[in-house]
Every structure is written in structure tokens, then in C-alpha cells.
Amino acid sequence: MGKIRTADELDSLRQSIIEKLDPNKTCVRICMTGCRAYGAEEIRDAFDEEIKRKGLEDKVEIRETGCHGFCARAPVVVIDPQDIFYQQITADDVVDIVDKTLIEGDIVDRLVYVDPVTGGKIPFAHDVPFYKEQTKNVLRNCGIIDPTNISHYIARDGYAALSKVLTNMTPEQVIEAVERSGLRGRGGAGFPTGRKWRLARAAAGDTKYLVCNGDEGDPGAFMDRAVLEGDPHSVLEGMLIAAYAIGTKVGYVYVRAEYPIAVEHIKIAISQAEEVGLLGKNILGSKLSFEIRIKEGAGAFVCGEETALLMSIEGKRGMPRPRPPFPSESGLWGKPTNNNNVETYANITSIILNGADWYSRIGTETSKGTKIFALAGKTNNTGLVEVPIGIPVRKAIFDIGGGIPDGRKFKAVQMGGPSGGCVPEAHLDLPIDYGSLEAIGSIMGSGGMIVMDETTCAVDIARYFLSFTQSESCGKCTPCRFGSKVMLDTLTRITQGQGVEGDLELLESLAQQIKDTSLCQLGSTCPNPVLSTIKYFRDEYEAHIKEKRCPAAVCDALCSYYILPDKCQGCMICLRACPSEAIEGGKRMVHIINQGKCIKCGTCLSVCPARFSAVAKVSGEHVPTLEEPIPVSTVTKGG
Amino acid sequence: MAGKVESQELDLTKLDKILSRYEGQDDALISVLQGVQAEFGWVPQGAIEHIADAFQISPGEVYGVLTFYEQFYLTPRGRNTIRVCRGTACHVRGTNANLRTVERTLGIKEGGTTNDFKFSLETVACLGTCFLAPVMMVNRNYYGKLTPDKVETILKQYD
Known about the structure:
The complex is a heterodimer. By secondary structure, chain A is of the alpha/beta class. Chain A folds into 5 domains: 24-80 and 84-123, Glutaredoxin (3-Layer(aba) Sandwich), CATH 3.40.30.10; 150-359, Rossmann fold (3-Layer(aba) Sandwich); 370-456, Ubiquitin-like (UB roll); 459-546, NADH-ubiquinone oxidoreductase 51kDa subunit, iron-sulphur binding domain (de novo design (two linked rop proteins), Up-down Bundle); 559-634, Alpha-Beta Plaits (2-Layer Sandwich). By secondary structure, chain B is α+β, with helices and mostly antiparallel strands. Chain B has 2 domains: 2-68, Arc Repressor Mutant, subunit A, CATH 1.10.10; 80-156, Glutaredoxin, CATH 3.40.30.10.
């Protein structure tokens, strides 16, 4: 591929790529990002080998794609043109897929998705409820194209938005379109993107910088990872359009070091774009010159905060500073800097190509467009979902997420990670948008949705988030440094059964002070999980404090493990596995846990075969146990 | 053991090669340290002073950056790195029991290295593989849907 010098050359290149594509050619799309953790590489190798063995190299394309979204069913492959969806496959299944599906056109029944509600088999991806209920805009290429091949991106209208902007729009018109679209920052704070661009454009000075925040630190959110891995050119194109609108020549992509595939793919995308002249000087023959540099994070959550991120890009300790001045006036090296999140940039091309009106028709009155959510925790269909903003929480968790596993009861969903709050059952019909979530003490955040069921302890989860923010506090301002520590210590005491009367009031008053006086968002939002769990689960806090009981049986200090005499089969599995030799008994003798020796590690619970389920973790309950081991045969079973 | 490694001659030519990749870039301190860490597995004391000279800043400033970011190590690391994820999804699915199992089995705490330099143990905020929860990584391999007994089996596979 040579240099693309003009918009017309880009168009004819696109035409020639599309003409060479055969829409009826068999293509096996394998997720090679998230699914890699489940052995996608072995599956790809098996396909390569089998295709070669059968001499099908010319007839079948094996395509390595980004995330398909349905991570709960990993590893997944989709076979075009029929759109056949196979899930949880292994390398051993490949021979069957090649023989039955690729050669004979039949479906391999055992690999097909089974609807957990109806029990019916769903062979095609477009019929699977998890996919059917989504509106893929930002994720439109994820799982479809090979992210390391720029031709794939160009074939799907890639860089057409850039071309339109450079030939038909003034920078002012671009900003106006983004403003009218109603797009708000997807990183968490939800600041209107168009207004941000306008401020940066209006700022004085010739040297300005553009930053893409890919420091996705919120534990439980992985949409930016998926976009960077699965469709990196869409981020570059969004940045190029921003560079044109604002008037910058240099951009930085800051990616977490914990995301090696994202780093690799964005690097490949940048070098490909440079090679064809879509990055560099006088792009598509216009006056726009733009280069992009990569900065890898080094492991600090606070660097997701924009002023800390800028410090880190400069190679310093990533500590926030007070705003104003905002980065749009004084950012990198004191120059005006525009900073948007990965997902925000990835929204831009669709706004330009389809128009601001099209975009603003999706979503609610105050929150426009689609948003990607990462469903995780106690939900059946963990994965990435993209939906119009404003759908009810219930729809996301139950219709798309497939509800709660093991027939357990929904308790709450944590939105916005350590900066957010939970949405309890009473608010399940709440629309997911910026305002509605804020009104009940939660936030949209970056889109992490951690589902919790009745076996999740509200106090423990608040303590968990505080332990996270406390350890990630940079230490610059006192309210965050000390305040989060005191809150964490208080919560730890409560979970250890040492809570005292007045602890809740202490937590609430401290939380308010920390919110009011912290330097940056890390500090000012860290009390949110505590406040929202106290608001909705006060009775659970009180059970810990007054009754020394953990209703969800999570907090170890308040729990004990017991072996149920009527279920124990005397199989010795737990007895052998127990690291502290706390289990007494023998072959075909009912086992007993010596509570004095038990270190509450949970090994016995995890190794006890599910068909026996003879180990119980309880809190504040009386469990009838034996004094000493007796033969299994002498116990009355089942009660 | 740590002292023995420390006393080995630091290969300055390797260090200078890394520095030369970023010559003239004032903002490259973190990138250089990442390069050093990738080359040596940790950041030796001697390297700190050498890098400070190259950037014309004080060793204190380099040290400040090193201790701020979790990625950097000031002591030698084990041959295998275990990363136990402490993300929210992993937490609600019971990652703590797994972490305790690793700690107990290896006799080290988070941040520690075994005496035989076989393992180093870290926890990370989130590996972004929440669908595998609870998850840990050993080197570049992911292990998902873990339970304490699986952890012990996995650790035995490494040398």
C-alpha cells in the first residue's frame, strides 16, 4: 500500500479493497484478545493446521479479531457468511468445525449457544439475545475486522470521517457538530465533549496538545481495552478529527501497562497510518499535520485523573494539581491540552459520518448516544455490551446479562467502580443515564457494572473499594491521604466484629468532609461506595456492629466453616486438602472441623464435591455438629 | 542472596543503549525506567544514579518516580511473576482465598520474592479480564475461575 495523498485516492483505495472482498467467502472470526486467556491461540493454530491439511487455504479465511463481547462464553468464534456462533470451544473441536461446517455447511450442535431461559439452541450470532438487544456503534468493528490490518478498517468506512472533515468542514463546523450531537465524556465525569474542544481551540498559543486517556483503572471496566485492542484506528481517526478541530500537531495515547495487547495494537495502527500518510505531514493533501506518540502507564490508578495523567506523560510522579487552570488553558508543559477518553474519541467518526442529528436521536434528553458497559461479577453473561444510554438497569442485567447465576437473588449493582455507588433492587427500573444515577447516589462512571447477589456483603464491598482508593491515594492532599485511611480502618474494624456504636455517624461525617475538601476526583469520590451502601444497606452495617454477624456470610472474622454431618460422605478430600490439619475424621467417618485450628481459608468449601455440598460457611447461626467423628452409615441422611 | 546480585557489576553498556533510544527527550524518564526494568527485571541502585546524570536531575527525583509507580522494583525479582487480580469482579467472586493460598504455599506476602527466586508475588488492581474472575496470571498465562485448590496445582507447574 503506497501513500494516500488525497481524499479521492482514499476513496478509490477503499473501492479497490471492497471489490477484492468476496462477501460469500467463508471466514472464521476468532477473538484473539480477551479469549486469548482461554486458549484462543491454540484454537487459531488448530484451524490453520486443519485448513492446510484439507487444502482449504484459498477458500477459507482465518481472521484474528478483537473482542466479540460475549466473554462469558469464551473462547468464541463466528463463521461468515452464515454468522454461525460457536462458544466455549477448544482446539479439539476444530476438526469437527472444519469438516461439518466449513466443508459441508452443517452446524456442530454441541458448540451452539443454548438459551438458558428457553433451553432452545441458537446457532446464529444475530439471534442470541445478548447480541440482539445491543446497539453497536463504537463497537461496530470489534470482533469483525482484524485490528492489525488497516485495509479492514478502511473497507468499513475507515478514515472517511477524517476525509469528510478535511475536505468539507471547517474546524468550527466540526466543533459545532460534536456540540450538537450531545456527546459527553465517556471517562466518567461526563463533560460535554464539544465544549471541551471549543475551550481548547479558543485557548491562546500556537502549541497545543491532544491526549487520549487510556489509563482505564476502574477495576471492573474493560471497554477501553476492547476498543484499543479491537478497533484502534477508530481512536486514531477520532484524535485526528479533534486535532483538526482544535489545531494541534502532537497527540499522546496513554495506555495502562497492564494491557499489553492494547499497547501492541495501537502501536501497529500508528505505524500503519504513518506508512500510508494518514499520520504525518499534510494529511490527505490538507494543511493538517499530526503525529501521535504512545506513553505506557506504570501502574498508578490516580493517573486516570487528567492533571495527574499529564504529569505522568511528562515523566514525573503522577500527582494531581488544583484546577483551574484547566488543561484546556494550561496542560502539558503549560500548553493548552485537550484530553478525552478512548471511548469518547471512538464516538467521533459516527457523529461526523451520520450527522449530529442522527447521534442525538439515540439516548435520552440529557445523555446522548450509546455507551459501552462492562458487565461483570455475579451475572450469567459477563462481557461487553453497547446500548443506547437510558435503558433501564433491569434490562442490562437481566435481558442482556442473563440474570444472576445459581438461582441466587440480585442485591445491587455497583456503577462507576470505586468512585461510584450501588443501585439496589428498588431502583432496578432506573434509566442508566448521567442524571438519574447521580440522583440516587451512584454515577455513570466509565461504565463498569459489577453485579452483586445475596452472597455479597455490603460492608465488605465498601471496605474493598476504600482499601483500593486508600492504597492508590497519591498522598498529596490531607483529606484523601488521612481521611481515606481513617474510613478504611473504621470499615475494617466493623468487618472484624469490632465495630462500635457511632461508627456509622463517624463514617458519614468523614465522608462529607473528604468529598468537600479533597484536591482531585480520586479523593472527593472515594466516600461514594461507603455512603451508598450505608444508605441502602444500613441494616447490614448494624448487624455487623451490634450483633457481630455478617448476613451474607462473607466477613471471615464473623464466620465459621462447618461440615454438615448429614451430608458428609467421609471421602477425606477436604481432610487431605486442609492446609492447617484442622479436619478430623477418617475414611467413611463424618469429618469435623476443629474450630481452634481452622484458619478460615475456605479450601474445604472449594474442594468438597458439589454433589455432597457438605461444607457450610455461616455467620451468627448455630450449626449442629458432632463431638467426634462417627461412621457415615450411622448418621440419618437428609433429615 | 539479594546482596550478591547487588554486588554484580551493572552492565552500563546495556543501560546506555536504553538511554540512547530516548536521547534528547526530557519526558522519557518513565520510558527509560521501563526499559531498564524490562532488561534487568528490576532497577538496580547503580542505574538510578546513572539515569539521574543523563537527565540532569537528582537521584532523589528518579527515586521519587520509581517509588510512585507500582510497576517498578528496587530489588531483584523471581523467575516467575504471579499477579493475583484484586479487581471488583474478582473480589466478589472470592479472590482473597486464592491470594491467601498463594501466600501460604510460597511463604511470602504481596510484593515479596521467595528465597530461591522462583516466584515473586504481586497483586494488581484489575487485569481487565473480569469474565475470568477470580483470576491470576503467572508470567503471561491467565488462570481463571480459580479456587484455592486449583492455585496449588498451578504453582506446582512452574520451575
